């Protein structure tokens, strides 16, 4: 059975995050959708949650370690979901209330001090308020939020479950 052991679940967390990143890169490079600062921030937390899943898969810890990795996955996904919700909020604003669009992220990183560029990246700008793609009426950050909720659920499940795989 799939997800029978904590190790299998951690592998699925990692592979799921790989799938999310592949989808993001497909949208960027094949569909020509340029990621906004909040999109990039969400990608960072997808990668972080996936990295915890991969480390847990490789490490294959006993009960306490599995719970710690589960917490790390859940917290990473929870923080990422906050950025998804921020972008959904920006997308829900009327056009005249949305923040102004900023320069591209590469330009900001080259020109502004790092902390200023990071602040813009975390808060988002007018580019983040634009809905450029939807599926079943839900925009990209909406689907990303769904993925983060799933990752939080898997992380919490890893914390609460009784591991049945003793590390060798």
UniProtKB/TrEMBL annotation:
Residues 27-44 are periplasmic. It is a multi-pass membrane protein. The chain crosses the membrane at residues 12-28, 40-58, 70-89, 140-160. Pfam families: DsbB. The keyword Protein biosynthesis does not apply. Keywords: Cell inner membrane, Cell membrane, Chaperone, Disulfide bond, Electron transport, Membrane, Oxidoreductase, Redox-active center, Transmembrane, Transmembrane helix, Transport. Residues 1-9, 62-67, 162-168 are cytoplasmic. Disulfide bonds join 36-39. It is found in: Cell inner membrane; Cell membrane. Required for disulfide bond formation in some periplasmic proteins. Acts by oxidizing the DsbA protein. Belongs to the DsbB family. HAMAP family: DsbB. This is Disulfide bond formation protein B. It comes from Sinobacterium norvegicum.
């Amino acid at each position: 059975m799939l997800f029978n052991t904590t190790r299998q679940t951690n592998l699925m967390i990692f592979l799921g995050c790989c799938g999310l990143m592949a989808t993001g890169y497909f949208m960027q490079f094949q569909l020509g959708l340029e990621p906004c600062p909040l999109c990039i921030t969400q990608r960072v937390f997808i990668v972080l949650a996936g990295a915890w899943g991969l480390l847990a898969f490789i490490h294959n810890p006993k009960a306490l370690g599995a719970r710690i990795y589960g917490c790390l996955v859940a917290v990473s996904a929870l923080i990422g979901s906050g950025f998804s919700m921020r972008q959904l909020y920006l997308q829900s604003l009327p056009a005249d209330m949305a923040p102004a669009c900023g320069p591209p992220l590469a330009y900001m990183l080259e020109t502004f001090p790092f902390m200023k560029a990071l602040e813009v990246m975390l808060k988002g700008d007018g580019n983040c308020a634009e809905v450029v793609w939807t599926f079943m009426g839900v925009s990209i950050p909406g689907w990303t939020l769904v993925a983060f909720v799933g990752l939080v659920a898997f992380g919490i499940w890893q914390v609460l479950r009784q591991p049945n795989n003793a590390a060798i």
